Amino acid sequence: MPHRLVACEHCDYLHVEDDIPPGFVARCIRCGSPLYEAQKGTVERPLAFAITAFVLFLIANSFPILTFAMEGRTESNTLLSGVVTFWQEGFPFLAFMVALTSIAAPLMLIGAYIYVLAPLYFGFVVPGLRAVWRVLAVIRPWSMLDVFLIGLLVALTKLTDFADVIAGPAFYAVCFLIPTTLLMSTTLDPRTIWRRLAPENLRYATLEDLEELRVGTGQEKATGWMTCEICAFVVTDSAARETGGKCPRCGTHLHHRKSGSLSRAWALLVTAVVFYIPANIFPIMTITYLGRAESDTILSGVVVLLQSGQWPIAIVVFTASIVVPIMKIVLLGWVYAATGLGLAGPLRERTLIYRVTELIGRWSMIDVFMVSILAALVKLGNIATVAPGFGAVAFCAVVIMTMLSAMAFDPRLIWDRAGMQKEQGMSS
C-alpha cells in the first residue's frame, strides 16, 4: 500500500514506510532509533529454527548440564535444579525469577513461534494466533538463556579450581540453543506476520490521513494519532474511537502515552537503589569446604576470580554485576530528571542513552544464575556445599526493578516535556 505510515516508538515522529534493500535498517530521522529492517517475508526458515530450538530445549531440560566430582562423590544438575534448590533453601523469589527467565519464558517464546508460524506455513486455521503473537512482546525481554550461559561459564570457572567437572548433554544443547533462538528471531520480520494476521478489511494510516491531521476534513478534524505498543500500527484518533480505543490489528488497548509513566519509573528506580545497598553488603552465597565456611559478596567474588588468574571472566562479572547496575541507575535517573524538568539539551543523545540502558540491564542476572548453578551442584555435605545468601535476593531485585523501571518509562516524554510538539513529518 503506498504512503503507509510508521511512527517511531521512541519519539513518535511519523514517517512514510518504504521498501529498503536487504540488510539495511530504516531509522528515525529525528532521534535515530531503528524503525524497521528490510522485509523477510517467508516463514520457512524461522519455523525450522523454532522447531530445532524446541528439540534442543527438551534436551537441555532432560539431561544433566554439569557433573561435579570430588572425593569420590558426584552430583549433577539440570536447568530445573537451581529452581528447586532456591525453593528448598527458602528463597522463593529467586526460584521464581530463575524459573521464569531460564525455563518458562524461553519455552513460551519458542512455543509461540511454532504455534503461529506452523499454521501460516501449512495453511490451516487455529484460534488465538493474534493473541499469542501479541504475548511475544511481553515474553521476549524475560527470556535470558544467553545470560544463563555466561553465568554457567562463570560457575564452571569457579568449580574447576578444586574439583573435576564434566559437561553434560544439556550443556551443549544450551550452547546450540542460544544461536538457534537468535536466528529464529532475526530471520523473521514481525511486520510480515502482523500483516498476515490482520483482518481482511484493515485500513492502514497513509500520507493522505496525515494531511487530514494537518488541515481537517469535513465537519470533523482529527486531533492526532496513536501508535500500538505491540504491533506498531499507527491509528488516527478518529479511527481509534471507532474501535473503542483498541488497535484494529492486534486488539491491544491504545493510549497516547503510558499513564503515570514518569512517576512509576521513578518509584521503581528508587526501589532498585534501596535494594542495591544490601545487595553489595550481604553475601550472595556461602561456600563451605571441608568444614570451613567462607561468604562471598559480589565484589569479593570478582577478587577471587582475579586472584585465580581468571581475569577475562572477572572483567565480565565486574562489568555486568557492578558497572552495569550503577551505570543504569545513574543514567536512567538523569534521563528521568531531565524529562521531568523539561530540559531541551541533546534529546537525540538522551534517547540513545535510554535505548542502551534498556538493553543492557538484563545482563546483570549473571551472578544470580551462577549462584543457582553452584547451589544446585555443590551439595556434598561436610565435604563441600554452596548456599545462597540474602545478597543474591537483593541483587536480583535490583536487576528486576531497573528493568521494570525502563519498561514503565515512556521515552516519547523526552521530546514532549522538552516542548517538542508532535511533528507531522514524513520521510522515505
TrEMBL record:
Signal peptide: none annotated. NCBIfam families: pqiA_fam. It is found in: Cell inner membrane. The keyword Cell inner membrane applies. The lineage of its organism: Bacteria, Pseudomonadati, Pseudomonadota, Alphaproteobacteria, Rhodospirillales. Keywords: Cell inner membrane, Cell membrane, Membrane, Transmembrane, Transmembrane helix. InterPro entries: PqiA-like (IPR007498), PqiA-like_proteobact (IPR005219), PqiA-PqiB_transport (IPR051800). It is a multi-pass membrane protein. This is Paraquat-inducible protein A. Belongs to the PqiA family. It comes from Thalassospira xiamenensis. It holds the Pfam family PqiA. The chain crosses the membrane at residues 47-70, 90-123, 135-157, 169-188, 265-291, 311-338, 359-378, 390-409.
